[in-house]
């Protein structure tokens, strides 16, 4: 399958009033800060410059919209797990994220990114439980698979599955060596028709 074509960055938004209201199918990326959401978008589009990698914490507190081929959105939700964030900031982010999920009727799928090298954190658990509670179809993406051996990959998938009480698919992924890219492109392809 080919990489996603004609990908553009649309905008970053920080408040509810700026949420995009149109009817394009929407796919969401969520996961803790630094897990590789921006790199994931870049890997799918084969464009290292599209989403800023390792960018300032300020940026990751927004909802970032990317439009693909005028057909659908990839949306990067704010990362979580910043040790330095104030309660007030966390609350604002939660409110923004909630409004996004509650007002957007076009959400097709969530890609939930975790780091394949570690057990999911408490924050990951909370986030995953919340996705499940919203009943949105979800794929768990175990990222940075290039950092561990192939045998270890299988072990970690089992650990991640147990820790999250997950029964859906977990895809090992690496934006570094493109493992899993085809699997994700297939999910997008299958879920994007209007
Ligand atoms: N080795 C490796 N590093 C990665 C991978 N994905 C992301 N990274 C690195 O992890 C850091 C955070 O990535 P970024 O995409 O900005 O994460 P975000 O905060 O979730 O958007 C950067 O230094 C990336 O180069 C991967 O699959 N493999
Ligand atoms: Mg990012």
Tell me about this structure.
- Strand 5, helix 3 (122-133) and strand 6 (138-143) form a beta-alpha-beta unit.
- It is built from five helices and seven strands, in the order ββαββαβαβαβα.
- By secondary structure, the chain is an alpha/beta fold.
- It has a seven-stranded mixed beta sheet with strand order 1-3-4-2-5-6-7, with helices on both faces.
- The chain is globular.
- The protein has one domain (7-191): Rossmann fold.
- The protein has helices at residues 37-45, 87-103, 122-133, 150-164, 181-191, and strands at residues 7-13, 26-31, 63-68, 72-76, 107-115, 138-143, 170-172.
- The chain binds guanosine-5'-diphosphate (GDP) and magnesium ion (MG).
- Residues 37-38, 55, 60 line the site of magnesium ion.
């Amino acid at each position: 399958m080919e990489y996603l074509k004609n990908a553009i960055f649309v905008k970053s938004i920080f408040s509810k009033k700026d949420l995009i209201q149109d009817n394009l199918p929407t796919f969401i990326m969520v996961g803790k800060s630094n897990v590789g959401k921006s790199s994931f978008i870049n890997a799918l589009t084969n464009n290292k410059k599209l989403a800023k990698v390792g960018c300032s914490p300020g940026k990751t507190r927004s909802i970032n919209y990317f439009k693909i081929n005028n057909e659908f959105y990839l949306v990067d939700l704010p990362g979580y797990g910043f040790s330095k964030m104030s309660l007030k900031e966390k609350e604002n982010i939660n409110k923004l994220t909630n409004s996004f999920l509650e007002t957007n009727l076009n959400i097709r799928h969530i890609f939930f990114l975790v780091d394949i090298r570690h057990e999911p954190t408490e924050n990951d658990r909370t986030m995953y439980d919340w996705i499940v509670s919203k009943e949105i179809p979800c794929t768990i993406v175990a990222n940075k698979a290039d950092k561990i051996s192939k045998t270890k990959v299988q072990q970690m998938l089992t650990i991640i599955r147990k820790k999250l009480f997950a029964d859906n698919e977990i895809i090992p992924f690496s934006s570094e060596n493109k493992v899993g890219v085809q699997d994700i492109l297939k999910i997008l392809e299958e879920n994007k028709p209007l």
